[in-house]
Amino acid sequence: MQKIILFFVLTLSQFVFSQDSYDIIFKNVNIVSMENDKVLENQNIAILNGKIVVIENAKKSKLKAEKIIDLKGKYIMPSLADAHVHLPETEEELQRMFDLNLINGVTKLRSMRGDWKHKEWQNKYNVINSIYPKLYLSAPPISRNLEASTAQLEEFVKAVKENNYGFIKILSIKNQEIFTQLDSLCKKYEVSLGGHFPRLAMGNALNEDVFFNSNYKSIEHLGGLVGEPNLFESRIQAIKKNDIYICPTLLWYSIGSGQYSYEQLEKLPGMEYVSKETMQEWIEKTKIYREKIGEQAYKDEVAKELKDLQEKYQVIARLQKEGIKMLLSPDASSKYMMTGCNMIDEMELLKNANLSNFEILQMATVNFAEFHKEYNGKIKTNKPADFIILEKNPLEDLQTLKNVKGVFHNYNYLDNKTLEDMKKKLLDASSK
Fold it and tell me: What percentage of the chain exceeds 90 in pLDDT?
């Protein structure tokens, strides 16, 4: 009887995954799975119901489907995640933001400046078969200006939990008492904290034990680690012990350092999507600032910012050595930056910390998935198909990410023509 049942199960399995049962097959592709720093060469991939069900050697493969795409030796890797974005004010701007990220292979966006209306956007745009990048939401942020009773704090945390916001971001905190109350409520309702390394009003520091035993899960901008030589070692060990993730956001500081000339600023990546009017406004404001502080003060400021960047590289190298997980984002929230377009620039800056391409790409794929306790971030069978197509091996050349040839995300395949059409539409809009 058992043999009959086993035969029936095997036969049913063969029927379900018969040669004509797949939705789409990508053949002759090299896979950067992100499980390790190796490339699985010349493979065929079968996708069914948005999931990778078969990966096998192309030479031996007999997979069939109605739709077969020959990638002719191109590479695929998991799609990218930007771990620190600020969502715009309007839905029109949000859709533009989505397109800018998709053409650059970014299918996951972690919001770091929340608003209650963002939940409505998530419900509208992150549905089954949606083309749009997945949103990971933070609640409206906490700052030192917060005046709230314990009862009001509890109502806030309950609202965060009931509406399934991922976490509460802290910009700053008024005093240790409010932090302790907030953390206690977050533990009660199982809500995470994250954001800036907390500074109290008047620049006082939060008690180290209180902070590192809190529900803080991620720290932005290398806060608490740069310019803190006396506390650096103890904080590194506490971050490691408590499995806190770090999001460095180097590019925001690099561009903000003032090191670029006006001509260089206008040619930074993504500036082709900025209207001439907006660019002129940015340049004018920059000129006013530089002229106001004076030539010598400006040079001194640039020198200090570049010195701080060097320290950040050293800190990142140490974090990597300690096995502390990092997330990737350029924090494209300022002038001369463009969402989606700056991911590779952040990656190139991370090379100054002597990180390998594989380690850098982990930050934008595997680490992001592990941070959110999700299943994507790697290319494996029985996992969702969420990947980008590239001309060259990104483990050898990160610059290949500048020209994404295709995106498969949430049951959708955006081929090269679709991405090019999206680019043209964005460029046309910026030229008006």
Answer: 91
On whether the CB atoms of residues 206 and 173 are closer than 8 A, the answer is yes
Read off the pLDDT of each residue in 244-249 and give the average, rounded to a whole number: 98
| Residue owning tokens 């592709």 | 29
Q: Is 16 exposed, middle or buried (0-12, 13-18, 19+ CB in 10 A)?
A: exposed
Mean pLDDT of 368-395: 96
Extract the tokens encoding 40. Answer: 């699985």
Beta-carbon contacts of 235 under 8 Å, excluding residues fewer than 6 positions away, are: 208, 224, 225, 228
The DSSP call for residue 301 is H
Q: pLDDT (tens digit, 9 = 90+) per residue, 117-175?
A: 999 999 999 999 999 999 999 999 999 999 899 999 999 999 999 999 999 999 999 99
pLDDT of residue 20: 55
Q: Which of 344, 363, 365, 366 is nearest to 355 (CA)?
A: 363
| Residue showing tokens 């907030």 | 182
For range 71-82, the mean pLDDT: 98
Tell me how far apart the alpha carbons of residues 67 and 283 are, in angstroms, rounded to a whole number: 49
3-class DSSP string for 101-142: HHCCCEEEEEECCCCCCHHHHHHHHCCCCCCCCEEECEEEEE
Non-local CB neighbours of 81 within 8 Å, separated by 6+ positions: 106, 107, 108, 109, 110, 327, 328, 364, 365, 368, 369, 377
- Going along the chain from its start, the domains and CATH numbers come out as 2-73 (2.30.40.10), 79-377 (3.20.20.140)
Report pTM: 0.94
CB burial of 84-96 (b: ≥16 within 10 Å; e: otherwise) equals bbebeeeeeebeb
> Do 287 and 335 form a contact (C-beta atoms < 8 A)?
no
Beta strands 216-220 and 412-414, pairing class:
unpaired
User: Mapping DSSP to helix (H, G, I), strand (E, B) and coil, where does residue 96 land?
Assistant: helix
Q: Provide the pLDDT confidence category of residue 18 given band limits of 50, 70 and 90.
A: very low
Written in H, E and C, the secondary structure of 377-416 is CCCCCCEECCEEEECCCCCCCHHHHHCCCEEEECCEEECH
Query: What gap in Å lies between CA 208 and CA 44, rounded to an integer?
Result: 52
Q: Are 28 and 42 in contact (CB under 8 A)?
A: yes
Report whether 60 contacts 36 (CB < 8 A): no
d(CA 109, CA 95): 13
Average pLDDT, the chain: 94
